[in-house]
Design a protein that fits this description.
Layout (H helix, E strand, L loop, with lengths): L11 E6 L6 H12 L3 E6 L9 H8 L18 H8 L2 E7 L1 H9 L5 H8 L4 E5 L3 H5 L1 H13 L2 E2 L3 E4 L5 E5 L3 H13 L11 H4 L6 E6 L4 E4 L2 E3 L6 H12 L3 E6 L10 E5 L3 H11 L5 E4 L6 E3 L20 E3 L3 H7 L6 E7 L4 H11 L4 E5 L11 E2 L2 E4 L5 E2 L3 E2 H19 L1
Parallel strand pairs: 1-2, 1-3, 3-4, 4-5, 8-11, 8-13, 11-12, 13-16, 16-17
Antiparallel strand pairs: 6-7, 9-10, 14-15, 17-19, 18-21, 19-20
Helix pairs in contact: 1-2, 1-8, 3-5, 4-7, 10-14
Length: 422
């Protein structure tokens, strides 16, 4: 088994495939589930067969694909949907069209997929896939909210180019992301129901816009040299992914990194502090929550050369004239709406809490997370240890943890406080 895959040995997964052009991705999802050790039973709606042959998914899953509620070749066919509902450890609908989402939300039972969903005792994960305006439509959003109320988990559709040629949210989440989410859901099944709530159930961000910045900036000295810092972007990318999982519409403004785009986020790539400032300020008015996790350069060369600076055959040192970059966070604070929540990050090596509190007040922030990059495990690596300060509240020191866990912890605290105040 691949070290990069979760161990799903002995797990039973029902995969529902519906009539979307993205149905071809379900073949890769079946392959990944099988490689992870799971036993997979594929159910297809009649419309799905127009996009991918049942033979393909049956060959990959090593089980006959079922479509009709009463399959002809199955023993005990009239109760097959009940048996599958008891057999499954996880039910995934990917891709899930607007039609199937509406049927699941209102208890329709006209295919093996919908009948089994009604019979299932296991967690159910829905992956919406459709064109941009269908996904935005109030009826679709109401149906998705209904699914969450029923207890289903919903992965937000991803942003990108759609089959219609439009660009927006509606793409099916990538199979790797679906596999990861499904593994997490099955991993929680031994917990009491009260403890199994997902991030999206505990503090949801449905109908909420989140703006996140991440990574370093690069300030050009000449066409081949830059001034930058060691930021990897891990914290900001983790925040974007965690917010998207809770149902938010996420825009991630990212400096140069080697990270894969987080599922469910629109990613805007920038290089310099000026480019990041332009991208952020253009989107500040619609954002409900802003997380400024990027390590933005404070200074940039005042006169970058249009050609490579040559090393002269002298012993003279090179003197650089630097000028200040835009203070993105201070501008955001100056234009912050009363209902907008602004979260900053600070790296401090001396008088950390005092300097962070001053920054919070000076820049009109609601929260600030401060850490010391000289401490072991904190700073630019995969883990971090931060102290969280809030306006008119005590400081909270969080323990050392992976940045993915820290992102969830930060969201929990910010959202819980906002709900209490609201």
């Amino acid at each position: 088994m691949s070290a990069s895959l979760p161990d799903l040995s002995g797990r039973h997964v029902v995969l529902g495939v519906t009539g979307s052009i993205a149905a071809y991705k379900s073949a890769l999802l079946v392959r990944l589930l099988k490689k992870a050790g799971a036993e997979v039973q594929v159910l297809m709606t009649p419309g799905a067969e127009r996009f991918i042959p049942p033979l393909t998914l049956g060959t990959l899953s090593e089980k006959e694909v079922l479509t009709e509620i009463f399959p002809e070749n199955e023993e005990g066919s009239w109760t097959k949907h009940v048996a599958l509902g008891q057999w499954a450890d996880l039910f995934v609908v990917a891709p899930a069209t607007a039609q199937t989402i509406a049927k699941l939300a209102h208890g329709f039972c006209d295919s093996m997929l919908t009948a089994t969903a009604l019979s299932a005792r296991c967690p159910l994960l829905v992956c919406p896939t459709m064109d941009r305006d269908m996904y935005r439509h109030a009826a679709t959003q109401d149906n998705l909210e209904r699914l969450r109320e029923i207890g289903y988990a919903v992965m937000p559709a991803e942003h990108g180019e759609l089959a219609s040629g439009l660009v927006g949210k509606g793409r099916m989440p990538e199979p790797e992301a679906i596999l990861e989410r499904g593994a997490e859901m099955m991993g929680d099944e031994h917990k009491p129901a009260a403890d199994r709530a997902s991030d999206s159930d505990t503090f949801p961000l449905t109908d909420t816009e989140v703006l996140v910045t991440a990574g370093p900036t690069r300030e050009p000295l000449d066409p081949v040299r830059v001034l930058t810092n060691p930021s990897t972007g891990t914290m900001g990318y983790a925040l974007a992914e965690a917010a998207a999982r809770r149902g938010a519409s996420v825009t991630l403004v990212s400096g140069p990194t080697t990270l894969d785009p987080p599922p469910g986020s629109e990613v805007l790539h920038v290089q310099t502090a000026e480019e990041m400032n332009e991208a952020v300020q253009a989107r500040r008015d619609t954002a409900d929550y802003v997380f400024m996790a990027a390590a933005v350069a404070d200074y940039t060369p005042a006169d970058p050369s249009s050609t490579k600076r040559k090393k002269e055959d002298t012993d003279e040192d090179l003197a650089l004239h630097l000028c200040r970059t835009p203070d993105i966070l201070k501008t955001l604070g100056a234009y912050k709406r009363p209902d907008q929540v602004l979260i900053g990050f600070a790296l401090e090596t001396d008088d950390a809490l005092e300097n962070a509190r001053h920054k919070l007040e000076e820049k009109n922030l609601d929260w600030i997370a401060v850490n010391n990059p000289t401490e072991e495990g904190a700073g630019f690596g995969p883990t971090n240890r931060v102290t969280l300060l809030r306006r008119n509240g005590p400081a909270e020191e969080l323990p050392l943890m992976p940045k993915a866990d820290l992102a969830k912890a930060l969201l929990d605290r910010v959202l819980m406080s906002h709900q209490e105040q609201g």
